[in-house]
Design goal:
Helix content of chain A: 25-40%
Structural class of chain A: alpha+beta
Radius of gyration of chain B: 12 Å
Distance between the termini of chain A: 23 Å
Number of helices of chain A: 12
Shape of chain A: globular
Number of strands of chain B: 3
CATH topology of the largest domain in chain A: D-amino Acid Aminotransferase, Chain A, domain 1
CATH class of the largest domain in chain A: Alpha Beta
Mean pLDDT of chain B: 92
Number of domains of chain A: 3
Oligomer: heterodimer
Largest sheet of chain A: 6 strands, antiparallel
Helix content of chain B: 40-55%
Largest interface: A-B, 14 and 8 residues
Strand content of chain B: 5-15%
Strand content of chain A: 15-25%
Chain lengths: ~350, ~80
């Protein structure tokens, strides 16, 4: 019997890592025979060169270029390497995958994605309304569509310091108007408008990773406190925790939205309560931490996609410590060449 | 005595609060007191045991214990 072939995107394991490599590590740790295909947008993505983890990796056209190119590439992968399951790990991919989920299914590529309405409910510009319904706090947020509007908001309505965010990616704490304009322009140049200008909330950063099945039932979740972060606020060290208030918030979120698939709740907790800062519609880059403490959510996701019924798991050890680090490995220039010429590492 | 928050104390004297993720190092005396409190001893029982372990008066132990309780409140370990 041929092994299951799973496509995983977000394999940019850089200092601002995508979740793909951690998802792949989780899947490999549950089944060595699973065939993993990396899906990348850049020949330099480290995951492209991880030959022990990914059986092959392919370059995909950017989602902004439309479905046609992605569909053609996925069909090619299906023919050449096999592709039974797709685990998109980047925010920008989810809308196009949701839109063409039926076409994916007809190609024989199974996924578990939130519905478009679920996805929109947690978008950064609609989050203030959602948090009211699920009963938690949210920092005051202004949506701006130009740098002029950003300046106007900072002069009249928002109090510095604030966090300037892109709709999909990147967030910077800024302490004056000049740095707000600089960072806002930087994000807009990369990801476009709108930008969000958010009140900066002090407190401890706590995150929850979770997975819900096709019926919106929670299958497992793990909470961490970020101990050390990078300049972009990404986890560098973290510890497992359990806060009943956060667990309850997770239940209310899943119940209200009937969420399907992976998610991450990014929160700040202080004496006022829990502020829900963001909801990510995918696994976060620290997903392997959950796997390491016994809750392998990517494996459960694939089982759900296959129509199996995995047991929910909620118990995990507290006080376990995640340490991220930089390392190097030696690869071969031929892989780089194959990716450039044939758009896949193995040169098929 | 108000209930001590659920915490982990390692053999080497590190306290970990599994709800907040906070951790801090404590000395041997603090470790003994916290473990006595975790075992459900009353304030008087804790103080009496401390007087025996360290051969100090009840009043001295009481003063130190109350000061320690204040620190626990600041750290959110006691209500």
């Amino acid at each position: 019997m041929s092994s299951l072939s799973i496509g995983v995107s977000g394999i940019n394991a850089t200092d601002n890592p995508g979740p793909g490599v951690a998802v792949a590590l989780s899947l490999k740790s549950s089944s060595k025979s699973t065939k993993l295909i990396g899906l990348s947008y850049d020949v330099h993505d480290p995951g492209n060169y991880m030959i022990d983890l990914f059986d092959n990796s392919y370059l995909l056209p950017y989602p902004s270029k439309g479905w046609g190119g992605i569909k053609t590439t996925l069909k090619r992968i299906k023919e050449q390497d096999g592709l039974d399951v797709l685990v998109p790990c980047l925010d920008v991919e989810i809308p196009i995958m949701m839109k063409y989920q039926n076409e994916l299914e007809s190609m024989g590529v199974a996924t578990l994605l939130p519905t478009p309405s679920q996805f929109e409910l947690r978008s950064k510009d609609q989050l203030p309304d959602l948090v009211k319904k699920i009963g938690c706090l949210h920092p005051k947020t202004f949506i701006v569509s130009s740098i002029d509007e950003l300046v106007q908001v900072l002069r009249t309505r928002a109090y510095l310091p604030v966090v300037v965010k892109g709709k999909y990616y990147k967030a910077y704490i800024v302490h004056n108007l000049e740095s707000a304009v600089f960072r806002g322009s930087e994000i807009a140049a990369e990801w476009g408008f709108p930008l969000l200008v958010q009140e900066k909330v002090d407190g401890q950063e706590i995150n929850l990773i979770g997975l819900s099945n096709k019926n919106g039932e929670i299958m497992g979740h793990v909470s961490i406190k970020k101990q050390l972060t990078t300049q972009l606020g990404k986890v560098w060290t973290a510890v497992t925790i359990r806060d009943q208030k956060l667990d309850d918030l997770c239940k209310r979120f899943c119940k209200l939205t009937q969420w399907q698939g992976p998610f991450e709740l990014e929160c700040i907790i202080n004496s006022n309560g829990i502020y829900l800062i963001e909801i990510n519609p995918r696994f976060p880059a620290w997903v392997y931490f959950a796997t390491g403490v016994g809750i392998n959510l990517p494996d459960m996701l694939v089982k759900i996609i296959q129509g199996k019924d995995p047991e929910p798991v909620f118990e995990y050890p507290l006080g376990k410590y995640l340490v991220r680090y930089s390392t190097e490995f030696i690869s071969d220039l031929s892989y780089f060449q194959n990716l450039l010429v044939a758009h896949n590492r193995n040169g098929l | 005595m108000p209930e001590l928050k659920f915490i982990h104390i390692t053999t080497k004297g590190m306290v970990f609060d599994p709800q907040t993720g906070d951790s801090f190092q404590i000395n041997e005396t603090a470790k003994i007191i916290l473990e006595l409190m975790q075992d459900g001893n009353s304030q008087d029982e804790v103080i009496k045991k401390i007087t025996k372990i360290y051969a100090i008066s009840f009043e001295e132990a009481l003063t130190d214990f109350l000061e320690f309780k204040l620190q626990l409140r600041v750290l959110g370990m006691l209500p």
